[in-house]
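Q: I'm writing up a methods section and want to include an example of the input and output format. Could you take the sequence below and give the corresponding predicted structure tokens, formatted cleanly so I can copy it straight into the document?
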Amino acid sequence: MNILALGGSGDMGRMAVALLLESPNETSITVAGNNYERTNHFVNLVDSDKVKAVEIDVNQKSKLVELISSHDIVMNTVGPYYKFATKILEAAIEAKKPYVDICDDWKPTLDLLERDDKTKKAGITAVVGMGSSPGVTNLMAVIACSNLDEVDDLITAWGYGVEQGVGKKPNHFVTPREFYTKFKSMPAIANAATMHLLYEALEEIPIYKDGKFVDIQPLTEAALLQFPGFKDVYVCHIGHPEPVTLPRTLKVNSVSNLMYLGKTVTEVLRKYTQQISDNALTVSEATLKLDKELRNMMKNMNLLKEYVGNPPSLCVIATGTKNGKRTKVAIANNKVPFGDMAGVTSVPLTLAVEMILNGEISEKGVLTPEEAIQDPMAFFNRYAKRCGKNLSGNDVLLLKEVEL
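A: Here is the clean output for your methods example:
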């Protein structure tokens, strides 16, 4: 199979390419980016005759459609998604090729879902938000809710946490140090993930409360996150797709997405969002400054102590009733793939690519993770293979159930 990895030389894309090179499905991977020097540098470091580099500006639709048309599937890791997601899906629809992404912006997610009819008419499958959050969290949410008779409140959450085990490094993985050393003298490029974080903290965001959508201010403090067996942690609301997608498939009264980066880091984020709102900084300028400040902050041992005892970096808490009793079901990622955020994000992405190519995901239209994956535990059994030897889904998921 010929796979098009749009943004394949980026922080998430590099890991995804390395994972796909170990898949029995791929025959070739085209790594496409808007800077040929960077893209080709990555391909040279990978050093595989199955991988080639091309330059593409995703804003040039006709060229993008032509490129997608020559492949069996497009894997999109081009961020930020609020800028590029709908453009790329539109091109995939015109090319009539299946599509998978890791879109983690709520507004573009709704825009992508609005293209469901067009996607069905094109006869293709498009799985959106198939990363860590959304992605892993959505499937955790399905499992958590299935353990309750009725669900009143559902929380998806992510932040700074420590998992119990890490999987093996893929053979063709190119480390950030290897990749970026060549470009140290070049002007810094705004990190798409950090830009996304700022974007989702600038305007009102939707949560699902008491059976309807309500807009609130981002970074609004929420009640302390209480995951059984870990310390209670400071959390705030942040814009993400889960509150707008999970109520489509799960019978719940309320859904929210919370972030636990710690109070100190959250205050720094608030500082930069205010400067953007005051027109003192552009989003790109704030992204570069925030990245630099966070790197310096993470060298502070006193700050790192703030995260000791935190739940793992991805978790879901569902509260409701079971057998007539008030019950809480909490799930977290107990063991994770190699590569920190890149690993936890790219493994679900590449598994979805493989499942589409195998015909295991065959429904046409725009699908969220919980719509595309019919058996979450079977998915986590596959995910577990990237988290260590002889592991199953039960090993990589930490599940706690307590009566309240």
